[in-house]
Specification:
This protein has 15 helices and 2 strands. By secondary structure, it is mainly alpha-helical. Belongs to the heme-copper respiratory oxidase family.
Length: 465
Amino acid sequence: MNFKEEEKITRFFVFAALGWAIIGMLVGLVAAAQLYAPELNFANEYLNFGKIRPIHTNVVIFGMVCNFLMGLSLYILCKSSSANLAYKGLTWVLFWGWQLVLLIGVVTLSMGYTSTKEYAEMEWPLDIAIVILWLIFALVFFTTLGQRKSKHIFVSNWFSGAVIIVIALIFVMNNLAMPLYAFKSYSIFSGVSDSLVQWWWGHNAVGFLLTAVFVGTNYYFIPKVVDRPIYSYRLSLITFWGLIGFYTWAGTHHLVYTSVPSWIQNVGVVMSLLLWLPSWAGAFNAWMTATSNKEAWKTNPIVWFFMSSIIYYALATFEGPLMAIRWFNQIAHSTSWVIGHVHSGALGWVGMTVIATLYYMIPKLLNKQLFSYRLVKVHFVLAHLGVLFYIVSLWIGGIGQGSMWLALTDYGSLAYTFSQVLDFIKPYMLGRTIGGGLYVLGMLVMVYNLYMTSRPQIELTEQKA
């Protein structure tokens, strides 16, 4: 079949994901630097941490991840189903509309227009636009799925379909609001109810946009890169149904020790612990697939990135349930340890998967060979040094921070002042900034490598790793 138009659409989504990734990570690096040296905001209202932090998270989630999801889920669907894309014109509307919404979102967030909800800061006109575009995405995806030539639905398409349905449901519910005027509204929920709905969305945005998307794409791309089948198709379905069954209930582990009813907190704790099973089943399955071709994993640095992403996925899905346990939650929650946990998943799991996929897909979409595998190895080193500096600094600093906040004198008063805790974590904020800088430097190496790959009539002297 001819997939020329599908590959063109995918190419636009993939390059958009790369562009937003660089922007989001650079903004995140500025935010990290300000936590070490607050004066780096230069007393400029547009560089204020309170504004650039939501820009960082929204650009990474809605810019990098959603473009990655849309482009590659449609590509995988067409290739695995032997079907051309339905409504190609609407797909272009989806692409350009999504980029426009993101651009307006960045501008309005920098101007201070925010709903103040985690991972959902964009105001109501943009929420409505996102929902309309998401429905277009759903229409294109499920119509194409219905036109498939193969009787079997490949497992990656199960994950993509689930992401579309779940994200639509929880995004709409969390963003129900009463508009006051343009770019200002108030949630229809309040108090504890608002917290419950927010973390139903917030944690499942992580669970589906930052987890299920990449589990699904890995089941397609890792076998392609190593030229071997999925180790166990049955394990992939266990992972799918486990994530669907457990993840949607786990968000209330963010609300342990709050006024939320204890039984709801306990549901979140139990479901978080149960998530170890499908998460590690998926990690084991992907690892066995990636290592099934010894020649590939020994010599191909793209496979190394996939293998690293699997390790960080296993690590992040160990840390999450650990934080749900009450005794550990008491120490770690609301500390830098949580940020370390988030970024072991975001930089380690999501980032490494995106990097590996881009190195594989962009040369393929351009019908060229990768410019330099040596630069991929340089990127590999920079990325891993960056992640380790980042998360180890925040693990150590976070546990120390939590312990100091809990410490009491013999008279029952707090042993440390707030400023003393800030002094303690300052060197760890520097470690975080260094780690972020190394990671961003690696991304810039990748941009150069892919740019050189895209150039016409270049000398390709390093085609083998």
